Structures are given as structure tokens and as C-alpha cells.
Amino acid sequence: MKQLKKMWTMIVVLAIFSTAKTSFCQVINIRTVEQGGTGRYSAVMITEASLPTHTIFRPKDMRIFNERNKLPIIVWGNGACYDSPWEHINFLNEIASHGF
């Protein structure tokens, strides 16, 4: 039950981030993985101050997404209580480069 509550909290937080302006985010660290992926939108890997135990993969230029061109969200859990994205950074970066 605790894991389910944690997952729903994460979904709500990500939904809020998807509708908020990027100026509200306090980026601690930003990194480009594999030249930003092969998709239409060059992607970045971000550590954000309000989510210190999470990593965000998103298109680098968020200005192209707005009310008419919304950004879909994929919530990824590594499983087994493991809180590191390093085993999957190439995969998650590639998805982000396609606008997710």
C-alpha cells in the first residue's frame, strides 16, 4: 500500500510539472546523454531540487510544448526499491527525444 501511495504521489508531481512553466523548476544538474537521442527533440537528463531522489528525462527545449502541443508523460519505476536511473539512461533518454 505504501508503494502504491508513493507511485500516485509521483504521478501527481509529474502531472503538475507537465503543466507548469519550466521557470518554476530549480535545476541542480543537467546532462546530455548520447547527443540528446535520435528523436525530433534533443533530450536532457535533469536533477531537480524538489525531486532529489528522482531523475527527469525530457526534451531540452520545452518552449515548443504548450496548451495546444502537450507533452505526454511516462512514469518509470526501476523496481526492486532501486533509486538509480543509470541502468536505463540510454532508453529513457531516447524516449524523451521523441517528445515524452
From TrEMBL:
The entry's keywords: Signal
Superkingdom as given in the UniProt entry: Bacteria
Keyword Signal recorded: yes
InterPro entries: AB_hydrolase_fold
Signal sequence extent: 1-25
Name of the molecule in the record: Alpha/beta hydrolase
Source organism: Olivibacter oleidegradans
